[in-house]
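User: Predict the structure for this protein chain, please.
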Amino acid sequence: MNTGGLEQYKRLIRFAFNIILLGCLMVFFIRIWDENYNYGIVFPFFYKGFLLMGAFYAFFFVIFSYILGGMKIGYLKSANLMLSQTLAVLAANFLIYLETVLLSAKFVHILPMIQLTAIDIGVILVWTFLVNAIFRRLFPPRDILVLFQEYDPSDFMKKIKTRGDRFNIKASMNVDRGWEEITGAIRQFDAVFLCDIHSPLRNQLVKFCYANGIRSYITPKISDIIIRSSESMHLFDTPLLLSRNTGFSIEQKFVKRIMDIIVSIIALLVTSPIMLVVAAAIKLYDGGPVFFLQERCTIGGKVFMIHKFRSMVEGAEKDGEVIPASEDDKRITPIGRIIRKTRIDELPQFIDILKGDMSVVGPRPERVEHVEQYTKDVPEFAYRLKVKGGLTGYAQVYGKYNTTAYDKLKLDLMYIQNYSFLLDLRLIIMTAKIIFVKESTEGFEDKG
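Assistant: Here is the predicted structure, written as structure tokens:
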């Protein structure tokens, strides 16, 4: 069992490691920028003035690193942490290059920036493995007790075991064995997972763990997510929690629609050369239609036709029969394999966003037959239809290929209940990261 002696310093240690990385990156940046760019700008910095550029660089890197999760040492696996930091440094270097171009009033040579990026990635690689190794030594995996009730926790325990760097499952127990036996067992562990336990008993167990200083990890129910996002009210001396549960407000819808229009126009302009090449390639390959159209459900159950580049042979789904695509599906064309892997087949959906049928961020719009089936199995699935479907979303960013419909519903509700403009920006940036994470993108095999 963990002694917990260093636990109170975990955030401080994580902060120190991040400062070390930032310091190393800034040293290399300041030296390369000063030597290659400072004297080429309109008004060169003298003395220590060029340190201002270092401050801008640090700001860009910290913002993107925070959004992409690059500061979560000990929380993310090494590969995921390195990917987050690498994407953050690429974004920071790109923005600082654009700033340098503006300061120089002309395009400047990019080779030093490429050199800097290569050095940065090397630093990140070494830093990632060192700090994660140190962190795991300082904070070994917690001994875990999994408590469950009527549902078999085997699948959930498999997920826990994928994070052996954080959790060490020592035992599992059905809570029907009685309060005394359960609480006696809890005291022997560092933390407890409460896996789908009925609310009355779960509430007692949470209070028991809280009173005894034992961590409790809880799989939330739909009602928990709704309550968690409620607004605190103090009209009298009894606290109240207000849950409006009406989807987005008029103001939020307005801001979101403006953002959808701006993002979709920019995306269509930037990607238009790629889309023209793909459209020509699809047409030349077999002479069939360029787009694949399919009915999807969005806000209020409204049905619309979603647009994608066709990646399969014509008539892949005869008579409307739904046949999910597999990795080696014979129906997928050679062009289709490329555009599916690179997500290019999704680009025409910016047309749907511009039209107002979809949003950039929101619950993924499901097929009509899927909505009917999921709602039959899980009536609360209809809650996600309180808002427009999106090209990307909370479930796409934080879910995986094997995430159940019920868990995806929870993720979508977390987004709906906690929506903000900044959350949308964060999810858009995070989407760039999950494209490189195979276990996340495999979940999107719903195409034609």
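Strands lie at 142-148, 167-174, 191-195, 215-218, 231-233, 240-242, 291-297, 303-309, 359-361, 390-392.
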